[in-house]
UniProtKB/TrEMBL annotation:
This is Cache domain-containing protein. It comes from Desulfobacca acetoxidans. It comes from the Bacteria.
Length: 185
């Protein structure tokens, strides 16, 4: 009986050491990105770089026609950069209120003001991945990136991608998508 108790304690001690080592040596970290996932992240960097500067000034000036013109001019190029994954670009003011959506949709205006991801993008001044919900309740994958004009956050650009497309084309689950770092640090 005593021998069994010692074995059980030894077994649990070995398990405890194993899991402590696993955490200490970083084995609990996510796996490295696959080439397709890393490529997607780089594509997102290019899209954000392509959109950020042209959108920042019209957003700062509350120029809706200027914003729509930038989106009209750049959306197809950005969609091509993301291999057709990009469904919409939504431009928000710094409070999360929708200024523009491209391509335009026949849905009620989106209001992102309650989304923590939008608030984090404004506060951190870095892109933030998120799972958001359309007015009809459909889940979408989104990258919320601040629009800086003269070092001040004037708004947020949201790249909208159907979660299903990320899974089918890149093998990315929602959890893996949320773990991607879209900041250029």
């Amino acid at each position: 009986m005593k021998r069994t108790a010692i074995r059980e304690k030894g077994f649990f001690l070995i398990l405890l050491i194993f899991f402590a080592g696993w955490r200490a040596w970083g084995c609990s970290e996510s796996l490295p990105l696959s080439p397709r996932q890393a490529g997607f992240r780089d594509q997102v960097f290019r899209v954000l770089e392509r959109l950020a500067d042209p959108l920042a000034q019209p957003v700062a000036q509350e120029d809706k026609r200027g914003i729509q013109g930038v989106l009209l001019r750049l959306f197809s190029v950005c969609a091509d950069d993301c291999e057709g994954l990009l469904d919409n670009v939504v431009v928000l003011d710094r409070d999360g209120v929708t200024i523009a959506v491209y391509p335009e949709e026949k849905v009620p205006m989106w209001n992102f003001s309650d989304y923590a991801a939008v608030k984090r993008a404004v506060e951190s001044k870095t892109p933030v991945p998120a799972i958001l919900y359309r007015p009809d309740g459909t889940a979408i994958s989104a990258i919320c990136a601040p629009l800086l004009h003269k070092e001040r956050v004037e708004g947020v650009v949201v790249l909208v991608i159907e979660s299903r497309k990320l899974k089918e084309k890149l093998g990315l689950t929602e959890t893996e998508f949320l773990s991607l770092d879209f900041s250029r640090s």
